[in-house]
Amino acid sequence: MSDTKQLVSLPPLFQETFKKILEILDNAHKSKSTRRVLRSTLWELNPLLQEIKKYNENLNPPREEIKTLIKEKDAGRDGLRRCWSRIWCKKEDSINGDDKQALVMANDVKQTLIKVREILQVLNGENFDEKFNGGATKGPCSVPDNPEFCVGLDEMLWKLKMEVLKDGVSILELTGLAGSGKTTLATKLCWDKQVKGKFGGNILFVTFSKTPKLEIIVERLFEQCGYRVPEFQSNEDAIHQLGFLLRKIGQSPTLLVLDDVWPDSEPLVDKFKFQMADYKILVTSRVAFPKYGTPYILKPLRHEDAVTLFHHVAHFGGSKSNIPDEDLVQKVVRGCKGSPLAIKVISRSLTHQPYMFWQNMVQELSQGHSVVDSSNEILTCFQMILDVLEDESIIKECFMDLGLFPEDQRIPVSALIDMWIECHGLDHDGKEAMAIINKLDSMNLAHVLVARKNASDTDSCRYNNHYIIQHDLLRELAIYQSTKEPLKQRKRLIIDINEHQREWWLDEKRQGMIAHMLSKFLRFCVKPKPLRVLAQSLSISTDETDTSDWSNFEAPEAEILIFNLQTKEYSFPDFMEKMSKLEVLIVTNYGFHPSQLDNFKLLSSLSNLKRIRLERISVPSLVTLKNLKTLSIYMCNMNQAFESDPSPISYRLPNLVELSIDYCKDMVELPIGICNITFLRKLNITNCHKLSALPTKIGNLENLEVLRLSSCTDLEGMPDSIGSLSKLTLIDISNCVSLSRLPEDVGDMYNLRNLYMTNCVMCELPYSVINFENLKVICDEETAASWEALNPNLNIEIPQVDVNLNWLLH
């Protein structure tokens, strides 16, 4: 098909733009130098090209023009480096005609693609009922990563595949005991080539868990599918919008996986049933639902497969030195009774253990019932694993802390670091915390997930892209450990308030109907005594059904307070005002739209509060927090946070040492008042795409050591006053694609040791960079060419980083 015919099929707004781009590309073929500079320009505009590509796919026109642009951008990097160094080092009056033509061509491309950006903004306007946000390949309802190693699933995988490949509408159910591999099998099914070939991008993976919320699930589905997420007026409205969404994407075959469905959620599953041409629902559950037909039952692993899995997970390989006796392996595997989860955890826990420990494990496993008879049996089995940690009590304590967070949710590593630094006395650079996390990962008690790999991660104490995920049974084990003591004496108190469990304080002895009624009667007759708990860590999970009366609740010993919210509005309970020992506050909203916090002012009475982390919150005006050291704000609305009334932000946060603002869409400018917080040592403003400039007085931060501005794509410049930050040791401006220059005096920052500037190829370097002697520059090949031209003696590193652009989509 000719270029002209291809252009006719494009939307009218794009036709003239792509004609111009094709003309520029055609002219570029006449000059080698022009092609090289053109590639550099297109490399700089790579995020925009990817955005165009996704719009192009959504609108379904031919894609050859986009492919041509991307091909041009990716080609000839070695030649580009030589060309760019040559042009860079020339004075303007010495540039020859060919080079001038190249620069003119590059400018033409930039101006043309600016028009494309304007078109995209029109398409993204509020006047459209639907907004395409780029179609994230990794979203809240995307399929988990394909398991690298599986055994014993082939037969069941084949049966399920044959069923989902049939045309028509059907609901399939996969059942099995906890830890039997249901989620793994469902994931393998979604990654199967034939299944992907049929359903393409219409494979959605939803984790229900024990207390699913319909509105939140529908919000995540809209987000995953790339449509504007509506605000639902009710559950009925959410169901209506869900039907609209599924019918919209259901024009092609659609596979919806509903994972980890509990018995009480059967009516909710019915809400996802719609009549569409080719629509399959796969439900995984520990129990069978007869209304969905005969279930597929996932049985325990055969002994041979179980032994194979045991050896693989334990990393024994060809070495027998870690195995006291192969016969012991056979006995341990038989004791696990084919439970993949039990095998994974036990095999790793036995690594490098003495012979006596293996014997004790065999003896424990040989007693009683099979570990797969029930969840309680598996928990009893895992209890033995925790005994391994008795000599490493800090590891066990940190494992139990994971139970403070909701089921089937990613736990931010940065939140764990905040907790563990204060309550366990770990070092402040996060290295000890990461060592503990890696230990838990190595024992299969948790798994580390890196959402996006950055070159600067090794130097970051925040680990903003690192998360912990945990099997729900292991979370139950952590909670079980925390509930061994009476409620009032527990070290960790986990409160889950929902429509099925509101009066959480009723212990086992008072949960009978008579005792329940008596307790209600006594409330009217006698003023109840305050419920005073001694927990050091308090976790409260709640939704919009919460009507709890906290007036007689006290937690004076709590050092850590975690709120897990599933509600649009929440008011801090008054009992917080008396939590004089509180050091860490973590508030996370698990809905799509930011939650509004009320009663925020009571935090000003907490004199020991040192760390606050807020996620998906509409941050109210920050109150005076005299001793706050670390403030982390993630995916929040920031409109009111730094309002100057009644006092400047530097007065309200006088001792702030670290400020992190990540993925905050409305962060347009950094308040000038922050420049007066003289104790500030780390300033992290990352993935804030609308941030266009920094305050000119940022040089007042005389104690600043770390400045991170990575992925602030609209940031156009850095104020010259940065050159006066003599204590600065690290700057990260990676993916700041609009950054045009570094400050003139940057070379005078003699303490600067690390500079990250991947994807900053058009950022001009001042002559003063020749002063650097001990600086390490981590950048891409094109940026490296600029540095080598001015200061060839520096340590320049070109790392392999994650090249996906999902960071643009938040």
TrEMBL record:
<dbReference type="InterPro" id="IPR042197">
    <property type="entry name" value="Apaf_helical"/>
</dbReference>
<keyword id="KW-0611">Plant defense</keyword>
<dbReference type="Pfam" id="PF23598">
    <property type="entry name" value="LRR_14"/>
</dbReference>
<feature type="domain" description="NB-ARC">
    <location>
        <begin position="156"/>
        <end position="287"/>
    </location>
</feature>
<dbReference type="InterPro" id="IPR032675">
    <property type="entry name" value="LRR_dom_sf"/>
</dbReference>
<dbReference type="GO" id="GO:0043531">
    <property type="term" value="F:ADP binding"/>
</dbReference>
<feature type="domain" description="Disease resistance R13L4/SHOC-2-like LRR">
    <location>
        <begin position="674"/>
        <end position="760"/>
    </location>
</feature>
<dbReference type="InterPro" id="IPR002182">
    <property type="entry name" value="NB-ARC"/>
</dbReference>
<protein>
    <submittedName>
        <fullName>Uncharacterized protein</fullName>
    </submittedName>
</protein>
<dbReference type="Pfam" id="PF00931">
    <property type="entry name" value="NB-ARC"/>
</dbReference>
<dbReference type="InterPro" id="IPR036388">
    <property type="entry name" value="WH-like_DNA-bd_sf"/>
</dbReference>
<dbReference type="InterPro" id="IPR055414">
    <property type="entry name" value="LRR_R13L4/SHOC2-like"/>
</dbReference>
<dbReference type="GO" id="GO:0006952">
    <property type="term" value="P:defense response"/>
</dbReference>
<dbReference type="InterPro" id="IPR027417">
    <property type="entry name" value="P-loop_NTPase"/>
</dbReference>
<keyword id="KW-0677">Repeat</keyword>
